[in-house]
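EI: anyone free to look at a 98-residue chain?
SC: sure, send it
EI:
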Amino acid sequence: MGKKLRSILCTQRFGLRAYSRLQARSQPSRAKRAAKRGPVFITDRGRPSHVLLTVEDYQRITGGQKSIAELLAMPEAARIEFEPPRLKGQWHEPLDLS
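SC: here you go
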């Protein structure tokens, strides 16, 4: 099956827009405009490899959750007292799975 046909089938299967990696790279403005209407699949060799979303769509999907890096970068994080418990036992030794 040819790359173009796979890309078309991918678009039909997911009901979304799809651009090849080269199309997305050569026409980034077009791909960004398409993302404003919904997710855009970027294909590599005819198979979906990435999804382009607007920030608003991403935040809606993730529920606006912040990453651990964002949480630790907050100025308020310096005032939070946190003492992680020490691990006990022999957790570092290999397990016997036999």
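EI: The mean pLDDT is 77.
SC: 👍
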